[in-house]
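Second opinion, please. Pick holes in both lines of this record:
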Amino acid sequence: MSVGTTELLIFLGIGLVAGWLAGLVLGGGGLLRNLIVGVIGAFVGGWLLSAANISLPIGNALVSQVITATIGAIVVIAVARVIAR
């Protein structure tokens, strides 16, 4: 596997875990939905924390990325539910 492929798989794995965690918090689920929400949440969470100038005080980069993506996924689900009403 090339480096780019490995990075993509790690990113998708983080998105999947983040989407699953967000689904636990807000309800809902399904593998594909979790993956999509988690990947979008990774971008949203990164942007939100950066815009708010928040740096998570976590020593493990992977855990920090999962938490950031989970925060973003929760926001994505909440906004989608408000728009759907």
